Amino acid sequence: MDGLVVFSSAVLSLSALIEEGRNGFWWQFGVVLLSQAALMLRRRAPWALLAGIVAADAVVLFATPELGSMSAAVWFALYVVALRVRTVWALVVTVAASLPAGAYFAFVYRPGEEFLAQHGPFIGLVASVSVILSNLVAIGVGIVVRGNRIHQAEVRAWAIRRAQLASVQERNRIAREMHDVVAHSLTVMVALSDGAARALDRDPERARSVLGELSSTGRAALADMRRVLGVLRADGGSVGREPTPGGLQALVDGFRAAGLPVVLTQEGESLPDDAAFQLAVFRIVQESLTNVLRYARGVGRVDVLVAREAGAVRVGVDNDGGTAPDGADPALGTGGGLAGMRERAAIFGGTLTAGPRPGGGWRVEAELHWAEGDR
């Protein structure tokens, strides 16, 4: 590519000299040839290249006007500089680079006497303007190419950033599901194993029943983990158990079997026929009950409310225990569950609040929205 640039510029710049064919122009020939060879350095020192070519052009132009200007070399140099500077500076450089040739044609250049008598200095002025315009075209091409390169770089950077954000969102989604699946299952299993240990001597049949629940919960947790791993391998699909008709009741029954006194109340119509929406409600209830089982002490009652209203679903989980999630041992949790619930609510344009109740206990309230026309 460098060789092609030098060759093209040399042919254009030396054509007048070769056409002239006189013996007194060999030093000018050397100056022109060196300036063309200097184009090889255009990537390393574009400013020095432009200054050198403009100076060589002025020397050749003023010393041997018969040869004309080395316009092609100047154009190439201006193009290279335009690729590296802002538009304002590119225009300033163009004006500066046009001064020697423009001044020569405007004030020094004189055509033949007969021709001059007819047209006067108008020809020189036209030539001067032509130099400036041709240089502006060269710099304009460089500005357009630079703009395209910047745009392409921005598009690539945007694509990379978008891919990174998608990756972060996917990791966060998987992390939420992993937290919900693992925390819920392990918490229930710990509660069941503690209950079985306490009932082992007093009520062996009850202990055996609790151990059966423990086994079922463990198998369900393993199945959920396999689904999570399947998503990681296949890079798609949904993670964990999808809610099914009666899924909330089955969820509450599982916590009740683990010793949590839960009462489920459902008001209004059934949830919208949207798997992602139903999963969000399911996970919010699941995480809230998991937190109660893990952190609350002395719980006498837990009320779960799922109410469908016009354009929204309200979810509430209240317990009268003595310890709230924020006051729990940090080793037992990181706060990721509450953050995950808030993210799930935000996906559907909703909000979630969690805090102590007046008189003791803890309350989680969420509101999720959907388009009124959806079912």
TrEMBL record:
Pfam families: HATPase_c, HisKA_3. It catalyses: ATP + protein L-histidine = ADP + protein N-phospho-L-histidine. It is an enzyme of class 2 (transferase). One of its GO terms (cellular component) is membrane. The chain crosses the membrane at residues 48-81, 87-109, 121-145. Its EC number is 2.7.13.3. It comes from the Bacteria. Gene3D superfamilies: 1.20.5.1930, Histidine kinase-like ATPase, C-terminal domain (3.30.565.10). Residues 280-369 form the Histidine kinase/HSP90-like ATPase domain. One of its GO terms (molecular function) is phosphorelay sensor kinase activity. Keywords: ATP-binding, Kinase, Membrane, Nucleotide-binding, Phosphoprotein, Transferase, Transmembrane, Transmembrane helix, Two-component regulatory system. InterPro entries: HATPase_C_sf, HATPase_dom, Sensor_HK_TwoCompSys, Sig_transdc_His_kin_sub3_dim/P. Residues 170-235 form the Signal transduction histidine kinase subgroup 3 dimerisation and phosphoacceptor domain. PANTHER family: NITRATE/NITRITE SENSOR PROTEIN NARX-RELATED, NITRATE_NITRITE SENSOR PROTEIN NARQ. This is histidine kinase. It comes from Sinomonas humi. The lineage of its organism: Bacteria, Bacillati, Actinomycetota, Actinomycetes, Micrococcales.
